[in-house]
Amino acid sequence: MSSLNMKIITVIGSGLIGRSWAMVFASGGFSVRIYDNQQGQAAKAIKEIKKQMEELEEAGMLRGELTSTQQLSLLSSYDDLAQALEGAFFVQECVFEQLEVKQSVFQDIECLVGKDVILSSSTSCLVPSSVFSKVQNRSRCLVSHPVNPPYYVKLVELVPHPETTTAVVDTTHALMTKVGQAPIRLKKEIDGFALNRVQSAIIAESWRLVQDGIISVKDVDLVMSEGLGMRYAFIGPMETMHLNAPEGLGDYMKRYGEGVTRVLNSFGPVPDFFSKGAKSIINEMCELIPSDPQHLSARRERRDQLLMGLAKLKKDH
């Protein structure tokens, strides 16, 4: 199986996620070949990465031990897929979220690489058995689902195809760890993976609380940002319960388990996110943050700056 001693990684797709992956891999000292099927797009991506890296270095937030100049020297752009894949031990696909496109991309890749090259998809909602259904050798395939933006949010969900070997997951886990990500292993595929299933539960109850007139959009967001999110930024829900009772998780369930069950049983059905009532929730959100490109871009920049600061705090502690 592929060894981390091999230094070339190919990133397929030069959009936001592709650029982020390229930066992450370069920060770990890997040579990264960026491919895009649109002429000149991969080269444009490197220019954008250069700007980002220089800003990160100036802010003291550049990842890895290499300077921005050294990391940039590890990046190269390609409009030819075969050339981009030559010598790579790991391929990270980052094309847009359309099943047929991803399937076609991996069919093309498989024809151009050796049998030991790991094929990884960045998909956030397509299970590996669907993404890799047209690949002949599925034992070296898996999903490596990042959280946007991966440069600041380090979690990566490793989701195996039913035929994926343990060695492939182990190598990918080691790679992600080496480049500073926080990989987790799913033992088998499931719709939504782990992160989006947990996130969907939060979305559903937040939506119901607003829909039922219990709380405003602004205040339900504060429940997370100034409440649950404060501790969840450092410890998860299982450890939170474990620490919130004198004698740990078992004690927590003795004390609060019935209450948790009662609340869960009071939850309503899955909300209709496309109903007439949903429009009022959307409008309430848009009153707080207008949905035009200028306002959204400014808020995304603010989000990334805050995540950068949080990442630094977590690193220092």
Automatic annotation (TrEMBL):
Signal peptide: none annotated. SUPFAM superfamilies: 6-phosphogluconate dehydrogenase C-terminal domain-like, NAD(P)-binding Rossmann-fold domains. The keyword Endoplasmic reticulum does not apply. PROSITE patterns: 3HCDH. Gene3D superfamilies: N-(1-d-carboxylethyl)-l-norvaline Dehydrogenase, domain 2, NAD(P)-binding Rossmann-like Domain. The keyword Oxidoreductase applies. InterPro entries: 3-OHacyl-CoA_DH_CS (IPR006180), 3-OHacyl-CoA_DH_NAD-bd (IPR006176), 3HC_DH_C (IPR006108), 6-PGluconate_DH-like_C_sf (IPR008927), 6PGD_dom2 (IPR013328), NAD(P)-bd_dom_sf (IPR036291). Residues 9-188 form the 3-hydroxyacyl-CoA dehydrogenase NAD binding domain. Transmembrane segments: none annotated. Keywords: Oxidoreductase. GO terms for biological process: fatty acid metabolic process. One of its GO terms (molecular function) is L-gulonate 3-dehydrogenase activity. Residues 192-259 form the 3-hydroxyacyl-CoA dehydrogenase C-terminal domain. It comes from the Eukaryota. Belongs to the 3-hydroxyacyl-CoA dehydrogenase family. This is Crystallin, lambda 1. It comes from Anabas testudineus (Climbing perch). The gene is CRYL1.
